[in-house]
Amino acid sequence: MKHTFVLGLLILSFGMYGCAKEENFAEQPAVESNPPHGVQMAEKSNELSSWILDEADIRFYSTKTDKNDNDIVEEGVFNTYFGYLDKQGNLKMEIELDSVETDISIRDQRIKEWLFETERFPKVEIQSQIDYDWINTLGVHKEVSKVQPLTISFHGKTIQTEASLKIIKLDNNTINVMTQEPIHLNLLELEMMQGLNSLTEVMNLKSIGYLVPVKFQGNFKKP
């Protein structure tokens, strides 16, 4: 099956929320704006890179269906990530799965343990090849749309997909990249259904969707 992705570059809805059924949620829990990204660039990456991911907003969405067939969409974010585009056009991003935040701590913990299995699979890795000269020659305040192939390594699997991106050069040292459409991850193909079923059962739901839309927006800066 061909995928269309967050981490938007990525990302990564992880139809995956593990709260007890007695917990009361709004349809879309509020997420604090400007989440801390908690990223420290390695010296090697600084030496190789012409563009380093400075700050990003990586969000995913899950759809729950209760026993009365009511659909509820919920949102989460990732707060720790790393990314760069080097002089050979190699794009790399990593998302720390332990940094997931859905505004409810027990839900976060169950996602980490049951769905992501972060002790075994701590990160999502995204790689791609981009025309470096094309990025550098983009004019200031100019924008362009681009469909970019991606390789995503997640939960022990590697998938090939693509992201529809909008890229804006904000100034000579900053480019903004955003997904124009969510990237959809298929938890069935990623063999994550055991964790998803555990979350469905503990929440006393009819189902949780296994297609997860992910959105990405981030600024890359020259070091």
TrEMBL record:
<dbReference type="Pfam" id="PF04264">
    <property type="entry name" value="YceI"/>
</dbReference>
<dbReference type="InterPro" id="IPR007372">
    <property type="entry name" value="Lipid/polyisoprenoid-bd_YceI"/>
</dbReference>
<protein>
    <submittedName>
        <fullName>YceI-like domain</fullName>
    </submittedName>
</protein>
<feature type="domain" description="Lipid/polyisoprenoid-binding YceI-like">
    <location>
        <begin position="78"/>
        <end position="169"/>
    </location>
</feature>
<dbReference type="InterPro" id="IPR036761">
    <property type="entry name" value="TTHA0802/YceI-like_sf"/>
</dbReference>
